[in-house]
Amino acid sequence: MIQINRKEFLTNLMVGAATTTTLLGGRMAAAETENHNIQTNNYPLFVSTWAFGKATNDEALKTYQRTESLLDAVESGIRVTEADVSNASVGIGGIPNADGIVQLDACIMDGPDHRVGSVAAIEGIAHPISVARKVMEKTPHVMLAGEGAQKFALDQGFQHTNLLTKNREEEWKSWQKGKDKEAHSDAHDTITLLALDQHGDIAGGCSTSGWGYKLPGRVGDSPIIGGGLYVDNQVGAAGCTGKGENCMRYCASFMVVEFMRSGLDPQSACIAAIKRIASTDPLGLNLEIYFIALDKHGNHGAAGVGKGFQYVITTPENSQVLQSEAIGEGSVGAEGGNR
Ligand code: ASP
Questions:
Q1: What's the pTM value of the predicted model, to 2 decimals?
Q2: Which of 72, 130, 192, 226 would be 206's cystine partner, CB 3.0–4.6 Å?
Q3: 62 Cα to the center of ligand 1, angstroms
Q4: CATH classification number, 43-171+185-329, choose in 1.10.10.10, 1.10.3430.10, 3.60.20.30, 3.40.50.970
Q5: Distance 90 CA to ligand 1 centre (A)
């Protein structure tokens, strides 16, 4: 895993000035660089959450190079993370709810047609991102939840799969016996993937098992359009990870995109959204929320409350895990499933 801070990253870009336009320079936030010229061979651009997003991005890139479809790229990239049993926060191997059942949330969004598909609290289906895409493409609806979502998936030919791995089951059993039922309540992450092609078109998706040992039926921000993800093909896209309740209450991803619409570069928009929420919320900065964003021109950025939020930028020429801008003190919870 490559871990460099933002300053080092910018310094590297300066040192490699001659190649900046073929690296990521044109994609940095406008406040950080004057370079807005993006070379065609720097597309597609993928931005995702957490270090595990690297495998997601790399697969998305391969798929795009084969199919030239942003939706195929987003779906296939996220499927990699959903299939990774070692990832305790996404897909198979995710931490179950308080009843020991893995319930998954996912959504996908297509910029050019402003189409959306979403599934919430779906059980027994290994790839909710693919079900979300079917909801978008095969139904007149935006979101299916619970049993209805599962029935739809089975009707569409998805197989029933046991999502609860032995490890997660053992952990859940000891959590149940434990006196401190909150012990693992901070264990959660989401794969959120934003994608931009050379035509300026954008797509995005996210997938998660949500808050570990959540109340059965709890739905987080990830499948909520404007909460965990928002794509506006005229402006850009943003995604959220962290404590979903604190994103949902503020339509956080929509807010980041609207800040970009009003002229902020992606990173400044992420920072502005955190500050705006913190200025209203009784929790102040104690929010545990992290944003990624990209704009239509290929600028990108990320910010989170406290240190430690990593995100991944991938183009045909480079795929790197970066540290986000940190707002306030503290750092990402050490007990998080994949952090
Ligand atoms: N936002 C997700 C949820 O609340 C979890 C995470 O991204 O950490 O379900």
A1: 0.87
A2: 192
A3: 27
A4: 3.60.20.30
A5: 10
